[in-house]
UniProtKB/TrEMBL annotation:
Keyword field contains tRNA processing: no
One of the record's GO cellular component terms: plasma membrane
Boundaries of every Olfactomedin-like domain copy: 241-503
Signal sequence interval, chain numbering: 1-19
Keywords: Coiled coil, Secreted, Signal
Encoding gene (name): OLFM4
Protein name in the entry: Olfactomedin 4
Compartment(s): Secreted
Positions of region (Disordered): 37-75
Ranges in a coiled coil: 180-225
Transmembrane segments: none
Molecular function in Gene Ontology: cadherin binding; structural molecule activity
Biased composition (Low complexity): 37-67
GO biological processes: immune response; negative regulation of canonical NF-kappaB signal transduction; negative regulation of immune response; positive regulation of substrate adhesion-dependent cell spreading; signal transduction
Amino acid sequence: MQPGFPFLLALLSLLGSDAGDLVDLTPELSPTSVLQSDFTSSFTSGSKSSSNWSASSGSGSRTQSFSNFTGSKDDRGTCQCSITLPDTTFPVERVERLEYRAHILYEKFQKELSKVKEYVQLITIYEKKFVNLTLRVEIMEKDSISYTELDFELIKIEVKEMEKLIIQLKDGFSGSSEIVDQLEVEIRNMTLLVEKLETLDKTNVLAIRREILALKNKLKECEASKSENIPVAPPVPAPGTCTHGGVVNISRPFIVQLNWRGFSYKYGAWGRDYSPENPDKGQYWVAPLNPDGRMLEYYQLHNTMDDLLLYRHAKQSRITYGQGSGTAVYKNNMYVNWYNTGNIAKINLTTNTVSVTQNLPYAAYNNRFSYANVGWQDIDFAVDESGLWVIYSTEASTGNMVISKLNDTTLLVLNTWHTKQYKPSVSNAFMICGVLYATRTLNTRTEEIFYYYDTNTGKEGRLDIIMHKMQETVQSINYHPFDQKLFVYNDGYLLNYDLIFKQEPH
């Protein structure tokens, strides 16, 4: 056997040839020894390339050819050779796996690339916002006062402007200036309230602005009446008295605020408790109905108008038997129509308990003869200088309005008057000095006090007093004899009206 042949066989063994054949051919040599084998046998001198070799083993003979190799022998007789064996098998499965992985990687790349594009757009938007925010912060840092303080400064300026305007109005009015004097007092109270809020709580800017807006509206009304040469209203009669000839006009609405339960509570009533013993000490009450427009479940009491405006120090109570928005309060008692019946009830506001219930004789109820556009108000309570009243209809009156004077302690009927006015055609009603005043809707922004019935004389007649409103539907009207104001619940908003009376001849 030639010395270089075992080396080739060992090399083929490393490349994956049949191991059994190699053992037979070269049992005495390992691949490591072959690599550095010193050939002592004769080798064709020089170098050989692209040659063929043959090998035999044992008794038999086996020939195997190899190609694409080079070999040489150095000066010390060491043979060095290299061989190239091409792989004739194409790796189809590996290529398919590679293509599949490449496809998955491409989809992931596209998804991440779309996210990058989206992030680039968001970064551009946020960059603009940060620039804008930086400018606003720089302005705030340069300013010596906070925004809240600035709001109060602006309010003070507005109040001072109204003070100047009221002085000009007083100089321009001829004759009585009771309304202007009243506005002047309210503006002074506004100044004190602003100072108080500024020292106590600087988060009430919105509430105070509501009052300022209402005062501005009153000033505009006075200025307009001056320019139109409208006759100045007669002097206001003494509070709680009937030394006048009845209502002849009404102011524009003073918007107090939205009811405390929110926009969804469009039906209800509100007002101020009246007691002849303490006419100026009554609590303010707000009684919104549930969104169904029928059940009176919760009401609130406030000791002062400031508490009402600022939603503070409220006493909230719950009942489960009130129906409709015909509620009234007299001498610290609330009067309601008992749910789903023709009965009336008296509720003590101190204890929130029912002290008296009574059946109202022959009264229709449960939407039989309610007001126009207002449901569940078949029985409507009213308060005036002389006490407690109830306005309703009966089957015998064929739906015309019936007025009854009640004993406020026992709820028994003291006297009754029948009118010729059909109740379902009336939008609402109230009592002043024993006179019933009824309203009707002209359009979405205007009501008209169009009818009266005087229980003192039994006379009835027509009026044409325009009454502006904020929203479309008037749910209730309550009169306060001492304040001489109407408290109107208008689609969830609490409105005030000042009344102008005819001066009684001496």
